[in-house]
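Section 5.1 Outputs to date
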Amino acid sequence: MSKDKPFSYGKIFAIGSGFFALMLVWTFYNAYMPLILGDYIESRAIRGAIMGLDNLLAVLLIPIIGAWSDNVDTKIGNRLPFIVVGMPIAAIFFILLPYGAAVSLWILLVVDIIFLLAMTIYRAPVISLMPDHTPLEKRSTANGIINLMGGIGAIIALFGLSTLYGIDRSYPFIVAGLLLLFSFLFLYFTVDRRPPYVSSSKENLEEVQATKSFTNSIQRLRQPQFRGHLFILIAIFIYFIGYAGMEAQFTTYAVEYLQMEESTAGLTLGFFSLSFVIFAIPAGLLGSKLGKSPVMLIGLIILPLIFLCIPFLPHLSSILPNINQVLLLQLVLFTGGIAWALINVQAYPLVADLGGKNKIGFFTGLYYLFSMASSIVAPGFLGLLMDLFSHPALFFGASASFLLAFYFLRKGSNIIKKSNLLSIEEGNQY
C-alpha cells in the first residue's frame, strides 16, 4: 500500500457512524410508524402499503442517485453534496414526524414523504464512501465494521429509543434526528474530499444491483438451465415476505391485539434482532460445515413452528396466570431470531455461488431484486391478511411463506444438484 494512498480505520468508523445512524432511524421508523399511522388509518393493509413506499423509492431512485454521485465533481467531492442535502433534511423531518401526526394525516404524509426522499438522496453516497476510502484487500474487514455498527444502531433503536417512546412519543424522534445530524457533521469533517480509492457505486449498492438485474438480465432466468436458480430466488422472495411483513406489522399486533404498551412492543421486537446479531457468525460457520442450502432448510422449518406458537401464547397465559406473557413472547422471538440467522446469513452467499465465479455480479443483482421486491409488497399483504382474518393472521401468513419457501428452495437445490450446474469448492459445500 503506497503512502499516497493511505488507509485509516478511523475514517471507516466515521463512515460507519453514518450507517449506524441510518439503521437506527430506519429500524425505529419501521417499528413505530405503523402505530402512528394507526391514529388515522384503521386498515393494516393501507398502513403496510405506506410502509412499503421507502423500498419502492429506493429501487426507483437510488440507482439514479448512485450513478449521479459517481460522475458529479464539486469542491467537496462527489459524495458529500448529496450527504449535505440528504442527511440534515432527513434528520429535521424525522424529528417533525410526531408533530406532523399531531396535526393531521395529510401533514403527516407530507412530512413522511419528504423524510423518505431525503433518506433516499443520501443513502447511496454514504454507503459508497466505504469503498472510496478502502483498498480492495481491506473491504471485507471494513464492510464487517460498518455492518456491525449498523446492527448496533438497530438494537439501540428497539431497546433504547423504545424506552424513550414510552415516556413521550416525540423523544425518540428528537434523539434519533440529533444523532443523524451529529453523524452528518462527523462525516463532513472527517471523510476525504478526494478519497484515494474512488469506485463506482454501481458495484456497491443493493438497489443498483436490483435495478440493473431487472432492466438487463431478468430475461435470462427464463432459460431452461436457470430453472433451479429461479426456484431458489423465488424461495428468497417468498420468505422475505414473511420476515419483512412481520417486522413492519409486529408492533401493530402487539399493541392492538395484546394491548401491550407501544414502547414495550418495540422493545419486544428487539429480542428478534438481538439474537440474529448474536448468532449471525455461528450460523455462518454452521453453513460452512453443513452446507448453505441444508442450513437454510432447517431454519425454514424451525421459524414457522416458532411463529405458529405466538398466536397461542395469550391462551397459555390465561391457563397459567403466573407466566409473564410479555417475557414469554420475548423468549419466543429470541428463539425465532436464531432460526432467522440460519436462513438469512446463508442466503446471499448461496445465490452468489449459483453461477460460479463468472456470474457473481449477475446473481448478486438478482438476490437484491427478489429480496427488495418482497419488502415492497410484504407489509401491505400481511396487513391485508390481518384486516381479513384478525391480527393473529400475521403469524399464520408469515409461517405459510416460510413453508412455501422451503418447498421452492428444496426443489431448486435438487434441480441444481442433478444438473451439476453448481461449482462446489472444497470446504464450501452447497
